[in-house]
């Protein structure tokens, strides 16, 4: 397609988180000017601490990086193939984390901020967009994330006639490395697995005996709890996202829940106890490149700060723990996307508005950035008058978009909608030819073979899509 004779009008992206930053980057690399609007620091949130774009406020992990064994690993691979800014920054600032991809959160967000600010086609404006975007903005991506401002959320509710959907998300504590007693704790990845920057000894493990574990669970259940930062009476029935439950909520679900969740002892051996297997384990993962901070894996919490300090210091090895950050909880907002958005992530009630990130109902850092990547490419193609072929649902990104925009079948017009945030997972992929929906996988080898087949098909179909996309340019 020939270059336009007059400059292209800019696309506006609202929100400088993972999705908004990725969307702006994809638009600019397509040769289209973009204005990125970020409300911080003029308007702060309860959970952000810096002015940087794409700040990670919860975990520093992008989860498993193996595309042969995990759906998120397939998504990592696809985003790398699609020149993702977020994955480039993550790979440049990765930390040891066994089989996971974890990053130095400060260096990661600084890297993204620097690249966005240096790009000649990106204009960063520090301002809040109060309510719906101006009518003369004809191509807009709203990537305001889970902490969308009340005024914008209300305006969207009035435009769509939808009642807000929301859930509560929680943050895990971060511990100073030097305050951990390594005569009780030890370094080991589960099953000694290495990962993107790992050695097989990437986690600090704190062991608990059966009696210690039972007492710990009891203390969690009985502890004082905080109200969420943005909780008001009308949101008292807001649910939690199951992928990020507060540790005390998990404890309430049964005594063994934590031991088969974030405190599972499997694949770990305590060298301080004559190679004995611990009954339960608390794992801590490196949080910065200096190795001075470690976060408590899976220990997001809404306990009051004094209760966190008191209870978490009963964990062997953390008796004298110094906390760089304690846990917290915040309210997340998302759309009933299968009902409200079309296949190109545009709002049916106002197609000039396209959505990206967690507000669409995906969950997770990588998923949020991936939807931003797709939205940015779609918006840029639309501005340039080019076709943007749909991603195959056999790819991880295509499967995620399909779920968000129409794959959820329980859409109920009368009564509350049942659409809930979801991470990418193998259940979102179409079955391999010859395998029926709902067929049970028997045995670990068959399960591994099925995942590998889905991964291979995804790689093949993404390559075909990329060739088709290049031909359309």
Helix content: 25-40%
Alpha carbon gap, first and last residue? 6 Å
Biggest sheet record:
6 strands, mixed
Coarse morphology: globular
Instruction: Please give the CATH architecture of the largest domain.
Output: 3-Layer(bba) Sandwich
- Count of strand segments: 17
Provide the low-confidence segments as ranges: 228-236, 409-417, 436-441
The radius of gyration over CA amounts to: 22 Å
Put simply, the count of helices is: 12
CATH top level of the largest domain?
Answer: Alpha Beta
Order of helices and strands: EHEEHHEEHEEHEEEEHHEEHEEHEEHHH
Query: Number of folding domains?
Result: 2
Helix-strand makeup class: alpha+beta
Fold-level CATH name of the largest domain = FAD/NAD(P)-binding domain
Mean pLDDT across residues: 87
Corresponding CATH superfamily of the largest domain: FAD/NAD(P)-binding domain
Strand neighbour order, sheet with most strands: 6-2-1-7-17-16
Instruction: Bin the strand percentage.
Output: 15-25%
Topology:
Elements: E1 11-14, H1 18-29, E2 34-38, E3 61-64, H2 71-81, H3 85-92, E4 94-95, E5 100-103, H4 105-118, E6 122-126, E7 140-142, H5 150-160, E8 165-171, E9 174-176, E10 186-187, E11 203-208, H6 210-222, H7 247-252, E12 280-286, E13 293-296, H8 305-312, E14 323-325, E15 328-334, H9 337-340, E16 346-347, E17 350-355, H10 365-384, H11 396-407, H12 444-472
Parallel strand pairs: 1-2, 1-7, 2-6, 7-17
Antiparallel strand pairs: 3-5, 4-5, 8-15, 9-13, 9-14, 10-11, 11-12, 12-13, 16-17
């Amino acid at each position: 397609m020939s270059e336009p004779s007059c400059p292209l009008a800019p696309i506006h992206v609202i929100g400088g988180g993972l999705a908004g930053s990725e969307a702006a980057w994809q638009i600019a690399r397509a040769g289209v000017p973009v204005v990125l609007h970020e409300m911080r620091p003029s308007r702060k949130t309860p959970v952000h601490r810096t002015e940087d774009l794409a700040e990670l406020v919860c975990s520093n992990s992008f989860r498993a990086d193996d595309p042969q064994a995990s759906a998120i690993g397939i998504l990592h691979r696809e985003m790398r193939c699609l020149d993702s800014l977020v994955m480039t920054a993550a790979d440049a600032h990765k930390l040891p984390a066994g089989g996971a991809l974890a990053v130095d959160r400060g260096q990661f967000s600084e890297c993204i901020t620097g690249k966005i600010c240096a790009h000649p086609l990106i204009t960063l404006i520090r301002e809040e967009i109060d309510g719906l975007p101006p009518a003369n903005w004809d191509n807009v991506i709203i990537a305001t994330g889970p902490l969308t401002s009340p005024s914008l959320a209300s305006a969207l509710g009035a435009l769509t006639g939808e009642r807000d959907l929301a859930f509560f998300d929680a943050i895990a504590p971060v511990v100073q490395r030097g305050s951990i007693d390594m005569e009780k704790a030890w370094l080991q990845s589960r099953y000694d697995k290495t990962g993107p920057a790992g050695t097989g000894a990437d986690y600090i493990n704190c062991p608990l005996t059966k009696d210690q574990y039972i007492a710990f669970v009891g203390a969690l259940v009985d502890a004082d709890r905080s109200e969420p930062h943005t909780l008001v009476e009308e949101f008292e029935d807001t649910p939690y996202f199951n992928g990020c439950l507060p540790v005390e909520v998990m404890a309430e679900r049964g005594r063994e829940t934590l031991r088969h969740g974030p405190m599972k002892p499997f694949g770990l051996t305590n060298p301080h106890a004559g190679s004995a297997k611990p009954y339960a384990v608390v794992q801590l993962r490196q949080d910065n490149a200096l190795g001075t901070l470690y976060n408590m894996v899976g220990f997001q919490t809404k306990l009051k700060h004094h209760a966190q300090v008191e209870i978490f210091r009963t964990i062997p090895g953390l008796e004298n723990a110094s906390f760089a950050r304690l846990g917290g909880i915040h309210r997340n907002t998302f759309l009933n996307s299968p009902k409200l958005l079309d296949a190109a992530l545009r709002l049916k009630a106002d197609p000039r508005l396209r959505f990206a990130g967690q507000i669409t109902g995906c969950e997770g850092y990588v998923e949020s950035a991936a939807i931003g990547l797709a939205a940015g490419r779609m918006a840029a193609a639309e501005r340039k008058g080019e076709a943007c072929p749909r991603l195959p649902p056999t790819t991880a990104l295509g499967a995620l978009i399909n779920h968000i925009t129409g794959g959820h079948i329980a859409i109920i017009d009368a009564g509350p909608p049942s659409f809930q945030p979801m991470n990418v997972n193998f259940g979102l992929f179409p079955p391999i030819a010859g395998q029926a929906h709902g067929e049970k996988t028997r045995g670990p080898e068959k399960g591994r073979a099925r995942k590998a087949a889905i991964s291979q098909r995804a790689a093949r179909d993404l390559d075909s899509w990329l060739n088709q996309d290049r031909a359309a340019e």
